[in-house]
Write a structure and sequence with these properties.
The chain contains nine helices and 22 strands. With 427 residues, the protein is of the alpha/beta class.
Length: 427
Amino acid sequence: MQQVKLDKIVGGGQAIGTLDDGRKVFVWNGLPRETVEFDISKKKSNYLEGIASNITNPSPDRIPPQEPDSYLSTSPWQMMTFNAEQRYKSQLISEAFELHHVEMPKSNVYSDEIQFGYRNKLEFSWYGDTDATSGVDTLDLAFFRRGSKGKVIVDGSKLAHPNINTLARSIRDLLRTKPVTARNLKTLLIRSDQHGNCVWQLYIKDKITNLITPAEAAELPSRGGEVIFSNPKSPASVITERLESFGNTTLTDTILGTTFHYATEGFFQVNIPVYEQALQDMKSWIPADRPTVDMYSGVGTIGLTIGSPDTVLVELNEHAVREMQRNIADLGRSATAVLAASEQALEHITSERTIILDPPRAGLHADVVARLLDQAPERIIYLSCNPTTQARDVALLLEKYQITHTQGYNFFPRTPHIENLVILDRK
């Protein structure tokens, strides 16, 4: 165990300090100005990663986490006040742009002040052991321990809608009556709509038929679910084969008065009330008389709510595009759905269109940036889940653009994740 004084919060969510030998150390469960003892979780030649186990001079921002056993797995910022979280997120946005030498107004971070129970999606792992007394295999819901391959047993998460936790425990209890162990199981994915209606997907590593019967599925507190065989060679919960399906596995939600359908495994926003605020802010920057292109559009929640009457939606995921097309038809819209990676649909970025960008954490593909600079549309609306890559992209776009407006959003309270909006207008 080593000791270090921590200096600041960095973009990954850890606090950083410098050891006596000059190496940097990135520490979870630490706050600026604290001196901590930490357990090493990763060791490299020029830096360490670790988890603080003893705080010798706690920061005034430190509070007891609500889930002391599992919070580091899901929401590692539970140990700071919410005011501190808001402050650090604002600082991280500013620092990301400063790193790329981009001058921008200070970006405040919007929050609806709801810190727990906001997540409408959660994925559980499984943990099993052999009881020393009975010799019977145990089966529990679990999350991976941060910084290790171990797991921590849980009954749910305070971040999730309560109905998600209730359903997870019901499925766990049902599987405890079955001839199955944690070694046969991969993950349990549960989603809920804004009314608390839940659907589930149980991903398993072995092709076990009739694991859950229709009668048993009907007794679960959900509207539907699936048992899915997932290639055990893949660490992710990929759909290799759908083994069983029960009830209705499609969810429906309303965003700014527009109804959307989405699949259990598809992408959909996790915190809808804060997302709606971001959409309202973005809408004020979209001219109604110009065609709109919504790149990285998912099921169309941006383009179909705030886009102009003439909107093109570009999305790579075929499942999302399937739901997007259904949404377009149900809404009676004339929008165009395009199944393609954004860098393979560059012809839709033209000078007369307003461009909406909401890329994954990696940011914009270099070809997308090049096309934007070549066509120079009048306005670009760029919402990002990673201010660091957003700042990189904006720095390149400033060749022909200027920043008109910025606004941060706390879509994921009690975690380090940040959303940031930048409005770019052609010079």
